[in-house]
Amino acid sequence: MSGMRQTCSIYPPAYQLTVRCYGTRLHGCAEGSVSRYQNEYGTPTIKPDDDLLETMLRRMKQKPYSLDQTRRSIVRDSVIEVCRYRKWSLFALHIRTNHLHSIVGAPSPPEPVMDDFKEYCSRNLNRARIDPEKRRRWARHGSTDYLWTRERFLGALKYVLYEQGLRMEVYINSKLIKEELGIDLPPDLVGIRKWFKDTERHL
């Protein structure tokens, strides 16, 4: 594949950021979890450990948080809102029941971006008055992946859009991807899926 359009910056053209809900994928769980000290994509996960999981469960001060359809819609709109306000480039977003995946470009380290996502989402969820006061919603930190190349970007995009199981709350901005990264994708999810299949056949 040809290279992705680059800018002279210490930051990558895009990040893949994953933010998990409070109380989900605890350390020691069967699915594996990510350490906040080693959270870049591809780093080893913490292995299943029943004793560690029991310790983490005892430390929880509230029940795990989950996102139903109403909450997912609020989270989607909140992430779009903060990206517009900060002038960050939101390329794609997929909100699930217990986490959200995003692909975003920002002239910033990824940590402040994730912090702002959580802050705006919590603020708007509070305004909707659908949760008790002082509800804990987000796990600390999150997972970060630096997408420096076209191959890494497209791999992350395919993962976020099509490799999460049943599709839930999805956002995609093909126009922005073309304008900023030089990758010409169809405007809709069905077309992008076909584009991926056609591209893979020609590799």
Provide a concise account of the structure shown.
The protein has 203 residues and is an alpha+beta fold.
What is the distance, rounded to the nearest whole angstrom, between the alpha carbons of the first and last residues? 9 Å
Uncertain segments of ≥5 residues (pLDDT<50)? none
Q: What would the principal axes of the Cα set say about the shape?
A: globular
* Beta-strand share of residues: 5-15%
Q: How many whole angstroms does the radius of gyration measure?
A: 17 Å
What order do the SSEs take from the amino end to the carboxyl end, as H and E?
Answer: EHHEEHEHEHH
Number of E-state strands: 5
Going across the biggest sheet, name each strand in turn: 4-1-3-2-5
Total helix count?
6
Report the major sheet. Answer: 5 strands, antiparallel
